[in-house]
User: Which sequence fits this backbone?
């Protein structure tokens, strides 16, 4: 960055510090209190906000006759959230009207409209420009892969649809994910794709630029990651639903996805530390699952009648004494919505953030790879249950094909350790019950169906809706109808 640019950055950062936002949020506070709980990415939905204060404020662009861009990190009842606010003369142009948060009556922005800045192409372009030219602005540090060529000014658009964070797509070439709830320490969604890229694994789009906050006395907080946009790819979840609707087979894709997942797991195990689990660690894993179950049962009344039955899966894991299980860095929240089938027909995995509600330190801990496998197996069940009528055989076939694909690459079929797999599937279904009850109560019935099944005492498999036990004839189902990738 040039000296003039860095002097300008210091100026804007100093101006932001002097905005009167230092302790409280001043005139912005009432409007943000009303606006935050309505955001899809806000984790405290349904709660009245107690503490709301500024952690850092930096003007990426001071407002003048045109839009300004204010970057905020807010402490909302102990959670840290990232906001990018547009500030413009009021009224907003019609295209931006739905993004309005409020009009500042006093303070440095008196008379100006404050709005969600990401939908404003001018501000979205400014953010990309920052990422193209590394440097700092107040607490913000912008960084990039020096080898990457990031084009100038591709047209930005916000990604529409359900999301935990917020993303901007630039000219269908790059996608910038802006993390909303952030914490100290590198986000695994930056850490793991970078490690995979360095290891030569092409199953994950490699980060080309990122930005962080450097706050006194804290590890840097990852705030955003820019990656190549896999244009024309199909989201695995949508693809699966489409196949179900048209009565079409998905086992070839499930098999190829098993292989892709196994490749990513092998690359992660090669690039980052692994740990062999002994009986003590396995018992600790099982205790963690049991504790999560108890906490979820307190929060989700529908789960309570099944709590004792579900605990059986975790007790069995503790009793198994964990021989031969190894833990490694994994995806952490793998489901069909985190997979993309690219235009050349291969699978890519995205969103390595882990389960968004878990503390970052937990999400960065090595875990058995079967946790990801359980996530995908649950996802086939989700897809089959979203279909009317419920299609259990479709899900069973996909589950079997996925495990076979995984085994083809690693030499180990996940179903060979049914106790471990069942414990992780149960843990995932419990997580889903809490996730759905918090975010999509209309979907709660989907994990509840699995919870009912998983809470039943284990019987030898007698029909196709059961996960086949190792050695049973259904372990090696008929070959898929189409050639496998
Ligand atoms: N590299 C990419 N190429 C194409 N589409 C992508 C890419 N990364 C993400 N997406 C799309 O954006 C959506 C949201 O991304 P994701 O990383 O899952 O965000 P979140 O954590 O907010 O849910 C994905 O479901 C996918 O459709
Ligand atoms: O926002 P993320 O993609 O990181 O993940 C969260 O939201 C997912 C839903 O969007 C949720 O996934 C659950 O629903 C999916 C269908 O929409 C299904 O395919 C998954 O199997 C099921 O877990 C995910 O659990 C949550 O962390």
Assistant:
């Amino acid at each position: 960055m040039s000296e003039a640019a860095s002097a300008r950055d210091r100026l804007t950062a100093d101006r932001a510090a002097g905005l009167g936002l230092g302790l409280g949020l001043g005139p912005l506070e009432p409007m943000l209190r009303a606006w935050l709980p309505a955001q899809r990415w806000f984790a405290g939905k349904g709660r009245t906000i107690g503490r709301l204060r500024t952690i850092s404020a930096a003007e990426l662009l001071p407002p003048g006759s045109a839009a300004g861009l204010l970057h905020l990190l807010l402490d909302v009842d102990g959670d840290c959230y990232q906001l990018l606010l547009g500030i413009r003369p009021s009224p907003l142009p019609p295209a931006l009207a739905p993004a309005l948060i409020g009009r500042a009556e006093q303070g440095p922005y008196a008379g100006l409209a404050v709005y969600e800045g990401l939908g404003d192409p001018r501000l979205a372009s400014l953010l990309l420009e920052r990422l193209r030219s590394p440097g700092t602005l107040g607490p913000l540090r912008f960084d990039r892969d020096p080898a990457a060529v990031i084009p100038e000014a591709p047209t930005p658009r916000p990604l529409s649809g359900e999301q935990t964070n917020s993303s901007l797509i630039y000219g269908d070439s790059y996608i910038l994910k802006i993390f909303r709830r952030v914490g100290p320490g590198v986000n695994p969604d930056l850490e793991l794709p970078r490690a995979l890229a360095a290891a030569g694994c092409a199953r994950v789009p490699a980060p080309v630029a990122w930005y962080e906050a450097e706050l006194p006395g804290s590890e840097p907080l990852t705030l955003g990651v820019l990656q190549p946009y896999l244009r024309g790819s199909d989201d695995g979840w949508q693809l699966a639903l489409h196949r179900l609707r048209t009565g079409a087979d998905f086992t070839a894709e499930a098999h190829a996805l098993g292989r892709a997942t196994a490749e990513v797991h092998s690359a992660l195990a090669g690039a980052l530390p692994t740990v062999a689990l002994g009986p003590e660690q396995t018992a600790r894993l099982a205790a963690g699952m049991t504790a999560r179950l108890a906490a979820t049962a307190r929060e989700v009344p529908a789960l309570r009648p099944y709590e004792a039955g579900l605990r059986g899966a975790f007790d069995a894991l503790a009793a198994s004494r964990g021989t031969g299980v190894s833990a490694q860095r994994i995806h952490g929240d793998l489901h069909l919505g985190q997979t993309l089938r690219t235009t050349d027909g291969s699978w890519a995995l995205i969103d390595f953030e882990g389960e968004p509600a878990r503390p970052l330190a937990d999400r960065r801990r090595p875990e058995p790879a079967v946790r990801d496998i359980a996530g995908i197996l649950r996802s086939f069940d989700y897809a089959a249950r979203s279909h009317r009528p419920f299609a259990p055989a479709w899900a069973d076939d996909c589950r079997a094909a996925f495990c076979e694909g995984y085994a083809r690459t690693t030499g180990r079929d996940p179903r060979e350790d049914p106790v471990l797999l069942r414990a992780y599937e149960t843990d995932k279904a419990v997580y889903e019950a809490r996730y759905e009850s918090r975010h999509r109560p209309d979907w709660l019935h989907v994990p509840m169906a699995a919870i009912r099944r998983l809470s039943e005492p284990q019987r030898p498999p007698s029909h196709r809706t059961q996960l086949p036990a190792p050695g049973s004839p259904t372990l090696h189902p008929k070959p898929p109808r189409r050639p496998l990738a």
